[in-house]
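User: I'm curious what two different proteins look like when written out as structure tokens. Can you demonstrate?

Assistant: Sure. I'll show them one after the other, since each token string lines up with its own sequence. Here's the first protein:
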Amino acid sequence: MTAATAAGALPIGGFGWQRAPFTLRTVQLQVPDTRVQGFDEECRRQSRLIAAAYPTEDDLAWERITEEAMADMEDWVA
């Protein structure tokens, strides 16, 4: 990295270095510490909760088949 790129200058149009028309600011992100004891168990727990909250394709297919069967039975006379 040259001093020009470190200062925020960019090569523009092949005419040498010019100052970029924008500036960048620092952003700080905080993420969980994966080294903490129990992190993997907590990930598994949350994954199971998410998996249980959303139906699978098999669940949806079974629900559709059941609804179709119930619709067919509405016209039956006992």
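Here's a second, unrelated protein for contrast:
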Amino acid sequence: MAEKTESELVVDLRGRSIETLDDFWDAVTEPCGLPQRFGRNTDAWRDTIQTRGISEVIDSYDILVVHVDKRGSLRCAGP
């Protein structure tokens, strides 16, 4: 019996200046293959990842991993 291996799309944004959500959308648009019609908000992001059918790039992988530095709007509020 064949076993399917999960494939990962890894987008590494560490070291890039990501201070706002607009910066984040700008940074992930190309590597994730987001179309012009992409809504650039967290609801659209969730739909792209969970529902699929929006990005052929993301759809071709089982797992999406995005690495980003903890700065700006992506910084944790806790310790």
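A detail about the second structure: The chain has a mean pLDDT of 87.
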